[in-house]
């Protein structure tokens, strides 16, 4: 690959990440249980600790870097399959994934955008006590972003096309029936015990050897319990690697 082409790609992807987390215009934060202040804070934004009022992702720079790393790794190694994120908020991570494919001229991999587009279920609709205690539904005014808004965000970057497919609805209904053949990167951001298993059970069998699993909310007790139970049940011993204080990932060996 010509050095100039590689440099241009990296410049594009770096700028795309900076815009997605909005360290460019520095929008204020929405107070949340972790970061209660409203002013813009560069550390909070880069570490995914705040809830941006305008930016298209809340995951922070390190987690975006990890998505890029995983995608570029499977591209370089010829690992077959699409990208999916389960729990997309304003769509920023999926926009980055589509941008990576675009920058490499890849036309045969799909970005699957899976979300209820309503936020998270209420505590009364959840069966596991660890999820019921979390009360995430109390923040659905922020967490529930409708599908039309996410589509509009893709359009703003010029990245909404047939390689982007939406799976609207609760994971236990949509993911088992999703028309996905193979995955190379599976990113889970559903926060809860139930939503984590609702994604892992139908999607992990479709993950190619050499593909990656990214767990955004491993610090959250319910999510961690679900991941650990799933790995134990299926004899998964691939080492878990830390991304930041919130998130982890592993590469599937078989």
TrEMBL record:
GO terms for MF: metal ion binding; methyltransferase activity
InterPro entries given in the database record: SAM-dependent_MTases_sf, TylF_MeTrfase
Membrane-spanning residues: none
Pathway this chain belongs to: Antibiotic biosynthesis
Family annotation (SUPFAM superfamilies): S-adenosyl-L-methionine-dependent methyltransferases
Keyword Methyltransferase: yes
Family classification: Belongs to the methyltransferase TylF/MycF family.
PANTHER family per the UniProt record, alphabetical: MACROCIN O-METHYLTRANSFERASE
Alphabetically ordered keywords of this record: Antibiotic biosynthesis, Magnesium, Metal-binding, Methyltransferase, S-adenosyl-L-methionine, Transferase
Keyword Amino-acid biosynthesis: no
One GO biological process term: antibiotic biosynthetic process
Superkingdom of origin organism: Bacteria
Protein name: Macrocin O-methyltransferase
Organism: Actinophytocola algeriensis
């Amino acid at each position: 690959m010509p050095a100039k082409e590689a440099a241009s790609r990296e410049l594009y992807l770096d700028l795309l990440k900076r815009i997605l987390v909005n360290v460019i215009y520095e929008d204020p934060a929405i107070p949340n249980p972790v970061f209660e202040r409203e002013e813009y804070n560069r550390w909070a934004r880069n570490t995914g600790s705040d809830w941006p009022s305008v930016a298209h992702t809340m995951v922070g720079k390190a987690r975006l870097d990890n998505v890029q790393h995983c995608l570029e790794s499977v591209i370089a190694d010829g690992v077959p399959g699409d990208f999916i994120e389960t729990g997309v908020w304003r769509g920023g991570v999926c926009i980055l994934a589509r941008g990576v494919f675009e920058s490499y001229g890849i036309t045969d991999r799909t970005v699957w955008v899976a979300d209820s587009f309503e936020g998270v279920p209420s505590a009364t609709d959840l069966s596991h006590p660890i999820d019921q205690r979390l009360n995430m539904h109390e923040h659905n005014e922020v967490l529930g972003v409708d599908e039309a808004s996410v589509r509009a965000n893709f359009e703003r970057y010029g990245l909404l096309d047939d390689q982007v497919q939406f799976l609207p609805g609760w994971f236990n209904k949509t993911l088992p029936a999703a028309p996905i053949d193979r995955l190379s990167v599976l990113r889970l951001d559903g926060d809860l015990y139930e939503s984590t298993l609702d994604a892992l059970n139908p999607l992990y069998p479709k993950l190619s050897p050499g593909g990656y699993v990214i767990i955004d909310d491993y610090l959250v007790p319910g999510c961690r319990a679900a991941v650990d139970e799933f790995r134990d049940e299926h004899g998964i011993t691939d080492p878990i690697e830390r991304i930041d204080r919130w998130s982890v990932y592993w590469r599937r060996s078989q």
